[in-house]
Amino acid sequence: MSNKKILNLEYPVLGLSPMDGVTDSAYRYITKKYGNPDLIFTEFTNVIGLSVAGHHVLKDFHYDKSQKPIVAQIYGKDPEYFYHAAKIACELNFDAVDINMGCPAKNVASSGSGAALIKTPELAKEIIAATKEGVRHWVEDGKLTGLPTKTKNAIKALENEIGIEPHERQMIPVSVKTRIGFSEPITEQWISTVASMNPAWISVHGRTLKQMYLGEANWLEIKKAVEITDIPVLANGDIKTYDDYKRILEVTGAFGALIGRGSYGNPWIFKGRKFEDVSLEEKIKVLIEHTRKFVELNPDPKAFVQMRKHFGWYIKGFDGAKETREELMRANSTEEVELILGEFLH
Ligand SMILES: Cc1cc2nc3c(=O)[nH]c(=O)nc-3n(C[C@H](O)[C@H](O)[C@H](O)COP(=O)(O)O)c2cc1C
After folding, report:
1. Pairing assessment for the beta strands 96-101 and 70-75 based on DSSP bridges
2. Per-residue pLDDT tens for 79-96?
3. Distance between CA 180 and CA 192 in Å, rounded?
4. What is the C-alpha separation between 74 and 47, in angstroms, rounded?
5. Which class does domain 13-271 fall in?
6. Is residue 260 lining ligand 1, measured as CB closer than 6 Å?
7. How would DSSP label each residue in 74-112?
8. Residue 167 CB: number of other CB atoms within 10 A?
9. Residue 211, Cβ neighbours under 10 Å: how many?
10. What CA–CA distance (Å, rounded) separates 343 from 346?
11. What pTM, to 2 d.p., does this model score?
12. Ligand 1, atom 10, residue with closest C-alpha
């Protein structure tokens, strides 16, 4: 293999893909602890929201040191706000900044952000340049010039909460995560455009925006991306098992891969352990730990509903799973979850 690297990671790099509403700090903590992926991304976070943020928006950027190396993912369409968001990521000691050019969701793409940037390549390039400039300026002076006091205070509060100490001002990499086209695959053309801005790596989900999450991810298109650039490519889409991971590396020749949905209720996938081979007791213990962590980080009782989807992902594949899931879906606290699952633990 060549001397390519992502951060200080060598071939092959296996990461947890960013998933809004799923890969929050509790999910990342559990995934790192039980799966130990090489690389982890935050959920995508809006650049304007960040730049004018109070504490609630910055919450998406909560992490703990165990999750490192961790990449801050940002999205939007205004270069000047990418500039500010990049500085915030530096200030919060993230290991890299990733630009989302792949989200197909209506509320994101219809405003020209996410995967819609595939249609505006000049703007996409400006955004990469502005993000890099934000990093460079932060390294030069360590200042968050241009941000409102409210945002600066919220950043300080988050720094205290997660224990970020003053750190060396280093140029952190800027990467891009994208798809293979808007309505039809235009992989070579689009990936060349992105590559012309020299991002540190490019994550490629083998679907177009139009496909949303339907059909199959086209790994052969990802291979085309790998072949037209020397920049490391992370292949993504439909890795459901560790064997799929090995296969996607073979098929695409990529430098590594990202797993998204395959990690639902299954942090073990990153270690090559099959979900079926993990005992029910272990799954339940991890689910309870995940729930505790979630509540620790989200103490507002109203937030608990967000935890429920995870119950369905861990609790499956055994007699009585359906009934247990139904009970769990009515739970409102860690104690209730423990009570329901207690019978499975010795
Ligand atoms: C619920 C959900 C939320 C997602 N949120 C993001 C996101 O915030 N940023 C991003 O780049 N991709 C996001 N994605 C896309 C995934 O990172 C990944 O590219 C896609 O799911 C394909 O990989 P998979 O088949 O391994 O899940 C999301 C996907 C899902 C299912």
Report:
1. parallel
2. 999 999 999 999 999 999
3. 11
4. 6
5. alpha beta
6. yes
7. EE-S-HHHHHHHHHHHHHTT-SEEEEEE----HHHHTTT
8. 11
9. 20
10. 8
11. 0.97
12. 18
